[in-house]
Amino acid sequence: MISRKFRKIVFGGDYNPEQFPKKIWEEDMRLFQLAGIDIATLNVFSWSLNQQDEETYQFDWLDEVMDMLHANGVQVCMGTSTAAHPAWMAKKYPDVLTVTSDGKKRNYGRRHNSCPHSPTFRHFAGIMARKLAERYKNHPALLLWHVNNEIGNRCYCNNCEKAFRDWLKKRYGTLELLNEAWYTRFWGHSFFDWDEIVLPSALSEGLSGGNSDQTAFQGITLDYYRFNSDSWLDCYLIEYNAIKAEIPDAIVTTNFQGNGTYKPLDYFKWAPHLDIAALDIYTENHTPESYMALRYDLMRGLKDGAPFMLMEQSPSVINWKTVNPVKRPDVMRLRSYQAVARGAESIMFFQLRRSLGAYEKFHGAVIDHAGHEHTRVFKECAELGQELQQLGDRLLDSRLKSRIAILFDWDNWWAVELGGGPSAHIKYLDQIQKYYDAFYENHIQVDFIHVDTELSKYDLVLAPLLYMVKPGYAQKLEHFVANGGTFVTSFYSGIVNENDLVTPGGYPGELRKLLGIWVEEIDPLFPDQRNGMVMKQGFGKLQASYECGLVCEIVHLEGAETLAEFDRDFYRGSPCVTYHHFGKGEAWYAATDPSREFMQQWIKALCERKGISQLYEAPPGVEVTQREKDGDRFTFVMNHTEQIQKMNVGRSVQKELLSGLSISGDIELEPKSILILQA
Ligand code: GLA
Ligand code: ZN
User: Fold this and answer.
1) Are 576 and 554 in contact (CB under 8 A)?
2) Which residue's C-alpha comes closest to atom 2 of ligand 1?
3) Is pLDDT above 60 for 268?
4) Are strands 142-146 and 252-253 parallel, antiparallel or unpaired?
5) CATH number of 622-678: 3.10.20.580, 2.60.40.1180, 2.50.20.20, 3.40.50.300?
6) Beta strands 575-582 and 585-590: pairing type?
């Protein structure tokens, strides 16, 4: 039996030898060895090459590449090639082509161009996955499977419309229930026949304007989003099952796009069907480190803390912004370790060799157009490759621990931003990031959880902007707090149920009892407008006053107490941050969007109250995380700044894994450097 387990943090990336003459392949092998590359993702965009017409399949080139990689100690992440269908397929079976939201049938072109309900696409994709699995199941180079590529698009064709109706029949059973859920008496939209229902496109319920998600009927659009996410999951599963039928213990995954926060797909719903979660991450030089940190933590959260794969990043430039600067020296290395520090077990690039033609010819690659190893980028990759070889399997399957959880819910994200609310500036990810940053800046680890996660293992649970409260979730939170937990939520929460129907009787609806407040009015502020927050009592190291913005709510206390109140406008003196003793615990509410300063100090004080302390006291710009395994603790200390930073790592002597040095007490961190301390 071939061992398909990871032996170390795998290092490599997308490899497209089919774009180059064979004489280059040997040179690639030499360069891979030099760079310590031990994994290559193959066959991602080779559908047309492998199937030149309906009947003929040929994989000779792939056999040859597989053998060659194996002979050179490189394992394979096998793409199934279904992210771009062949031109002959589109010509012969136009159902494979998508229809855009404004009703245009697309021509053959680009990629991610298949309709998820095209019988043609589903049929041929399944066959392709099976053929590949049959052919390579015993190949010694095979490590894992990569279905499709950055799956997702929204299609508005007739096949999708029919499938949507079927999906709705399963969800609601009767049109009465559907009409109720969608509130169709508004604007006289009642449906009396399933076939009257059309997709919520730009031609039907879509509202033009700055925000493309704006829709006249949130209920139908929300269901379409759910349906589209499920549709692609079905397509993924066709391939997944075809592979598993041949290779029951195959490791199968797909690379999540949008840096892991891709709005159209509910990744929490997908996660149970991945053997390991994987994401692509593309950032710019100025992207804040906490942006990446959040996404890595979310990937880890998808499978309850299990390690994930960093499937693609650029070793240097990207190619789709107006200006695409190179990554500065040492940044690629440091950011790669940042992923490892948060649970990644692979460091992979798009791409290993730079294309010579078409759209991505100027996208970064390990091997540049120069074609040799004497480039800054190659050298940096090779150094990282050597280091990962030295680290061996030490970090594999180690876990990050946390007593704090942040809820992340795609349905809620969709619903909050569908339009018609107090302010189009209220953005779910912004709020999640803001609460996350308060922990990040305090060097305190958090987990991301979904609505079904058991809460009892956490001391502190946050659900910022919990606009949608799903059935049973308010009771779950009440139970958690009654038993001693601390819960935190913020403005515009508890407003609707799972169908985006308002919970009547006063905001925050189902959360009112737990939070001990009633929100009478929601007053959004313009982007440059501010209000003030005045503290009514001491808490941690909080100052006397702070700024706030975005939203100010007029709150009445129903058992809760006031930490801070508004400073201006007609609601001056009314509460803006409250807490409510509920059973053995506390439920906190921020009726506004406070300054970052307040957030950081407030969250720190909340953690101290629960006896949760930071991993190390570290200066701003230094990131600290800890992975643990078999009683060993691995602490990652990363200096993201351009300056030397000083900190203290405690009295006991720890081994630094990358240098082999022993370290304790006061230390100096070089700019853009990383330490991995083992205790
Ligand atoms: C995505 C895709 C790759 C490539 C890169 C370029 O992540 O998966 O095929 O296009 O972007 O950054
Ligand atoms: Zn379609």
Assistant:
1) no
2) 150
3) yes
4) parallel
5) 2.60.40.1180
6) antiparallel
130, 469, 453: which is closest to 272 by C-alpha?
453
State which amino acid sits at residue 218.
Q
Active site residue 608: no
**Cα–Cα nearest to 301, from 332, 333, 334, 279:** 279
CATH class of 404-609: alpha beta
pLDDT of 515: 99
Which one, of 269, 199, 209, 264, lies nearest residue 237 by Cα?
A: 269
Q: How far apart are the CA of 274 and the centre of ligand 2, in A? A: 24
Set 239, 312, 380, 478: catalytic member = 312
Band (pLDDT 50/70/90 cuts) for residue 209 is low
pLDDT at residue 419 in the model? 81
Percent of the chain clearing pLDDT 70 (strictly above) = 99
**Among 82, 311, 312, 363, which is best to mutate for testing ligand 1, by the most ligand atoms less than 8 A from CB?**
312
- Cα 93 from Cα 118, distance rounded (Å): 9
Residue nearest to atom 3 of ligand 1 (CA): 350
The answer to whether 284 is a known catalytic residue is no
| CA 500 to centroid of ligand 2, rounded, Å | 25
Return the domain boundaries, the chain. 404-609, 622-678
Cα torsion 23, 27, 28, 33 to 10°: value is 150
Looking at per-residue pLDDT, the higher value among 208 and 3 belongs to: 208
Atom 7 in ligand 1: residue holding the nearest Cα: 280
pLDDT at 2: 35
Q: State how far the Cα of 118 lies from the Cα of 567, in Å rounded to an integer.
A: 58
**What is the C-alpha to C-alpha distance for residues 260 and 433, in angstroms, rounded to an integer?**
13
Show the ligand 1 pocket: residues with CB < 6 angstroms: 149-150, 280, 282, 312, 318, 350, 360, 363
pLDDT digits (tens, 9 = 90+) for 444-473: 999 999 999 999 999 999 999 999 999 999
**Distance (Å) from CA 61 to ligand 1 centroid:** 23
In which residue are the tokens 């279905």 written? 147
- Strand segments, DSSP code E, in 558-661 are 561-566, 575-582, 585-590, 592-594, 622-629, 632-639, 645-648, 654-656
> Per residue in 500-521, pLDDT tens?
999 999 999 999 999 999 999 9
Contact 414, 500 (CB under 8 A): no
End-to-end Cα separation, the chain, in angstroms: 36
